[in-house]
């Protein structure tokens, strides 16, 4: 999931008869499947939760350009360069859609970016891992974007209209990204033994961080329960993670690759794959800022923002000049 451990500010779920009149009408609209729009009344907790989730999602799309961006010039063919360039450009667009959706909730883009650069706001843990080989670009498209699709398709039906509508286009483009990644892995697996070994190595390193993307089990989480009641979250972390495992294992078998989990096996009774224990200590360590690339990723974003200050200033100066000309012409 591109937004992890989102706080709702709730300590417990309240029943319908515990809500105020406005809160009850708001909840009844959500229960009826009616989208909440920016000018509609909403609880402050709902608004803040959406700001946290959508902005974290936007930050993840922007920071997510970094692991792949440094492979654009090193891609093996001109075709692969063009495809990867288009994908990285898509990720920038996703960030812009999502920042715009968050702005409808009354937060400024400058504030969201300042929160990211100061470390107050987080982005997905998955983007703090390095891309060591070209196969990693395939693994990111196949596994990371594949996991993102599993999580994001339900968001197309979330209760907040601007977020849901933004996710429709994002999911369509993420589908292209997943196919791009799988195509890279398939080419490597059909190549030389060394190329297939490179694909297997990438799978070995990205598998467990991808399962961590969905976040810890939220069966007992008040935050997850509140997000579900508000119609922001439609499925639990464990349900989404299970779906990702079930759809990915057959794909790995088709490629001739081995999932790096000795406990992985098909459970006929459940109709799902059982999988091994996840090392959650690693997840929390990365979220706290101690992952392999946390500092590098944040520094790259801060440097890019500071180096682009002159251009933003120029745009503002140009806009002011045009406004002054319009005012003078009207006079």
Question: What does this protein look like?
Answer:
With 331 residues, the chain is mainly alpha-helical. Helices cover 66% and strands 2% of the residues. The protein has 13 helices and two strands. It has helices spanning 21-31, 44-63, 65-69, 78-103, 109-118, 134-155, 161-189, 193-212, 222-229, 237-255, 280-290, 294-307, 309-330; strands spanning 265-267, 272-274. A two-stranded antiparallel sheet has the order 1-2. A hairpin with a 4-residue loop joins strand 1 and strand 2 (272-274). The longest helix has 29 residues, at 161-189. It is globular, with a radius of gyration of 22 Å. The N and C termini lie far apart (54 Å).
Features:
mainly alpha, two-stranded antiparallel ribbon, 66% helix
Give a nutshell description of this structure:
The chain has helices spanning 21-31, 44-63, 65-69, 78-103, 109-118, 134-155, 161-189, 193-212, 222-229, 237-255, 280-290, 294-307, 309-330; strands at residues 265-267, 272-274. The protein has 331 residues and is mostly helical.
- Write out the strand line-up for the largest beta sheet, numbering strands in chain order: 1-2
The percent of residues in helical segments reads 55-70%
Count all strands and give the number. 2
| Share in β-strands | under 5%
Distance between the termini: 54 Å
Listing every helix as H and every strand as E from the N terminus to the C terminus, the arrangement reads HHHHHHHHHHEEHHH
Number of alpha- plus pi-helical segments: 13
Give a short account of the largest sheet: 2 strands, antiparallel
pLDDT under 50 segments (min length 5)?
none
Question: From the helix content, strand content and strand pairing, which structural class follows?
Answer: mainly alpha
Tell me the overall shape.
globular
Gyration radius, to the nearest Å?
Answer: 22 Å
**How confident is the prediction overall: mean pLDDT?**
93
């Amino acid at each position: 999931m591109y937004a992890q451990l989102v706080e709702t500010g709730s300590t417990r779920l309240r029943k319908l008869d515990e809500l105020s009149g406005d809160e009850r009408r708001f909840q009844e609209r959500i229960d009826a499947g009616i989208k909440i729009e920016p000018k509609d009344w909403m609880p402050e907790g709902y608004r803040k939760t959406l700001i946290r989730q959508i902005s974290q999602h936007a930050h993840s799309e922007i920071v997510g350009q970094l692991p792949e961006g440094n492979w654009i010039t090193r891609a093996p063919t001109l075709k692969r360069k063009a495809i990867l360039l288009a994908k990285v450009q898509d990720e920038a667009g996703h960030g812009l859609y999502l920042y715009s959706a968050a702005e409808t909730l009354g937060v400024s883009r400058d504030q969201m970016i300042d929160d990211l650069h100061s470390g107050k706001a987080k982005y997905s843990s998955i983007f703090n891992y390095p891309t060591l080989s070209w196969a990693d670009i395939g693994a990111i498209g196949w596994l990371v974007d594949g996991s993102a699709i599993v999580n994001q398709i339900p968001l197309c039906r979330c209760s907040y209209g601007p977020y849901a509508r933004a996710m429709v286009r994002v999911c369509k483009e993420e589908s292209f990204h997943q196919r791009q990644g799988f195509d890279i892995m398939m080419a490597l697996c059909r190549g030389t033994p060394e190329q297939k070994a490179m694909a297997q190595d990438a799978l070995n390193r990205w598998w467990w961080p991808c399962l961590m993307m969905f976040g810890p089990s939220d069966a007992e989480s008040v935050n997850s329960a509140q997000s579900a009641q508000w119609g922001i979250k439609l499925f639990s972390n464990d349900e989404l993670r299970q779906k990702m495992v079930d759809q990915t294992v057959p794909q790995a078998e088709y490629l001739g690759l081995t999932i790096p989990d000795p406990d992985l096996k098909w459970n006929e009774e459940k109709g799902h794959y059982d999988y091994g224990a996840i090392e959650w200590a690693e997840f929390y360590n990365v979220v706290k800022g101690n992952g392999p690339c946390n500092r590098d990723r944040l520094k790259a974003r801060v440097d890019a923002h500071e180096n682009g200050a002159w251009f933003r200033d120029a745009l503002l100066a140009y806009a002011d000049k045009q406004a002054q000309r319009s005012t003078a012409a009207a006079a």
